[in-house]
Design a protein that fits this description.
The structure holds two protein chains of two kinds. Chain A is α/β, with parallel strands linked by helices. Chain A has three helices and seven strands, in the order βαβαβββββα. In chain A, strands 1-7-6-2-5-4-3 form a seven-stranded mixed sheet. Chain A is globular and about 40 Å long. The N and C termini of chain A lie far apart (29 Å). Chain B is an alpha/beta fold. Chain B has two domains: 3-151 and 338-373, ATPase, nucleotide binding domain (Nucleotidyltransferase, domain 5, 2-Layer Sandwich); 162-332, Nucleotidyltransferase, domain 5 (2-Layer Sandwich), CATH 3.30.420.40. Chain B has helices at residues 6-11, 30-33, 66-70, 82-100, 119-136, 145-151, 197-207, 215-222, 247-264, 269-298, 313-325, 342-354, and strands at residues 36-41, 46-53, 59-65, 109-115, 140-144, 165-170, 175-182, 185-191, 302-306, 329-331. In chain B, strands 3-2-1-4-5 form a five-stranded mixed sheet, sandwiched between helices. In chain B, strands 8-7-6-9-10 form a five-stranded mixed sheet. In chain B, helix 5 links the parallel strand 4 (109-115) and strand 5. The radius of gyration of chain B is 22 Å and the shape is globular. Classes of the chains: A alpha/beta, B alpha/beta.
Chain lengths: 157, 385
């Protein structure tokens, strides 16, 4: 089944964070987001925006080195993956990734192609492109839940 | 959680060694009996093994880098290849012991990196260390990876820093400013709010087509860069406090690369070198400004720099000058102890074991472990692991 994608143009880092917040509003427990784009495209910025919206005020370090950072929130949990340094999909086991995909956790996964075939199907697949200040964010739903979420995003720029 | 980790930390008990525990017979003169300590470091890419002889001060070490092993696979490091640690550790230990002379019987204690790091890799080292300790009937101790880095400058041949000091720990995975009041007593002054300094170097290298991880290559190319052609922001220097941020600088460099590529279709070698130079200078300036602030704020003249980024020549020079201006001094580890290694773990383990710190026999490790949770050795009821 094919669902319609949505394209959102974003200007600047602050707007990128707001978009992350808007995504957090529609991505609840069990929701899986794939984040694609070059280094510096703003994948982690979206996740920072999401965490702020969910009430997390602490430091959100890059997960590139530890591959996985999990945040306990008032409502459920958010897990932020960066699989850039993953050599083999089966190595996901070594970071205990299997245990974080549950109904109370939303998973935001950068570089999902590094673990192709091992990760669950995403609800939303997000592609970020563009240079300089502007970013084009393409959001592609891969499940009925993703479609509903996409329709529910409140975004006015 | 599937790992038997947290429970042993929470228990925090003083362990009991069964049988004729080597150490149990001589608790009062522990230091005299703990002469040779093995260090096992497996928190990330490198398998590092070392033997520290506290009487002669000799340090034997072996390092196996998985970066080289996996270079044919596009330069991306399969960090999590825990099985590589398992395959390498014992042969490296045998090599080491034959260099040092004498067998495993000479080992008086075993230290291993218990965190922070990749849990699979850590547990591989922990399992080997605890098993070896059990078989030899010797004490084993889990060491905090960053404490190893922090104490590595004490292994330098020349001047050694005395407590209290400020430490900048900068590597691929960390950028932190720590106030070290004494052994095992650390306060976090500031840290990166996004990317680590070494990670920024590696990502810039990737953007410039220099491979990954390519931090040292950025520094090498910066040597031939022309100053003044580009001007990058110095992140966070206008903000109060001692936190760092390198993500914005990364995006700025990305935009610069895009502009240059639009202009000239491709990046020539000189442009790459100029970008590397300005990037490196921006990172070094940012680290230097924060370190100066920390020395003043804490009224401490001694600055220790450790972690992989401390091998950076320009950073060493700038921080040494700055510390002198502040009426103090900067201390660095020996060059081969800047990156991850077993020697720093052997030394940190020796210090704790010699002070009488003991742990249970559980194979335990922690992926996340704030340095500030450490306590001085043998402080009652707060044994750190």
């Amino acid at each position: 089944m094919v669902w319609r994608m949505r394209v959102i143009d974003v200007q600047g880092e602050a707007a990128q964070r707001r978009l992350g917040g808007a995504l957090a509003d529609v991505a609840g427990g069990g929701f899986v987001v794939f984040l694609r784009g070059d280094l510096g495209a703003g994948k982690s910025t979206l996740v920072r925006g999401a965490l702020r919206r969910l009430g997390y005020s602490g430091v959100v370090p890059s997960p590139t080195y530890p591959l996985l950072e999990c945040y306990e929130l008032n409502k459920g949990r958010l897990c932020h993956f960066d699989l850039y340094r993953l050599g083999d999909p089966e190595e996901l086991e070594f970071i205990g990734a299997r245990d974080v995909f549950d109904t109370r956790t939303s998973c935001w996964i950068e570089w999902p192609e590094r673990a192709a075939g091992v990760l669950p199907q995403p609800d939303l697949d997000i592609h970020i492109t563009g240079a300089h200040e502007g970013r084009r964010v393409a959001l592609i739903p891969h499940s009925p839940r993703g479609k509903t979420a996409l329709e529910g995003i409140r975004w006015s720029g | 959680m599937p790992y038997l980790i947290e429970s042993s930390i929470l228990a925090g008990h003083i362990p009991t060694l069964k049988g004729d525990g080597f150490y149990r017979q001589t608790p009062a003169n522990a230091k005299n009996y703990l002469m040779k300590v093995i260090g096992i470091e497996t928190s990330c890419d490198e398998t590092g093994i070392a033997l520290y002889d506290s009487v002669s001060g000799a340090m034997f070490q072996r390092l196996h880098s998985q970066i080289k092993l996996h270079a044919p696979f596009g330069g991306v490091v399969p960090e999590l290849a825990s099985r590589n640690h398992i395959q390498r550790t014992l042969p490296l230990l045998d090599e080491l012991l034959s260099e040092a002379g004498g067998g495993k019987g000479q080992i008086d204690g075993i230290a291993y990196t218990a965190g922070p790091g990749l849990i699979g890799a850590l547990l591989a080292g922990a399992a080997i260390a605890r098993s070896l300790a059990w078989a030899l009937n010797r004490p084993a101790i889990g060491i905090h990876h960053m404490e190893g880095h922090l104490l590595a400058p004490l292994l330098a041949a020349g001047d050694k820093p005395e407590f209290p000091f400020i430490a900048l720990l900068a590597s691929g995975g960390h950028t932190q400013l720590i106030q070290a009041d004494r052994h095992g007593c650390y306060q976090m002054l500031g840290q990166t709010v996004d990317d680590a300094a070494g990670e920024a170097f590696d990502k810039i290298a990737k953007m410039l087509g220099l491979g990954y991880p390519g931090g040292p290559e950025v520094s090498r190319l910066a040597e031939t860069g022309q100053p003044g052609r580009f001007k990058f922001p110095r992140p966070m220097v206008n903000r109060k406090g001692l936190d760092f941020s390198f993500s914005g600088l990364k995006t700025f460099v990305r935009n610069t690369i895009a502009s240059q590529t639009e202009k000239a279709q491709t990046l020539d070698r000189q442009t790459i070198a100029d970008i590397c130079l300005e990037f490196e200078t921006a990172v070094v300036d940012s680290l230097t400004i924060k370190c100066r602030r920390a020395l003043r704020q804490c009224n401490t003249p001694r600055l220790v720099i450790a972690g992989g980024v401390s091998a950076n020549r320009r950073l060493r020079q700038k921080l040494t000058e700055m510390a002198l201006q502040e009426g103090g001094a900067a201390y660095f580890p020996p060059p081969d102890l800047c990156t991850d290694n077993g020697a720093m773990i052997a030394y940190a383990g020796y210090l704790r074991l010699a002070s009488g710190a003991r742990q249970g026999n559980e194979i335990s490790a922690r992926a996340r472990w704030p340095l500030t949770e450490l306590r001085p050795p043998r402080q009652p009821e707060t044994e750190h692991l």
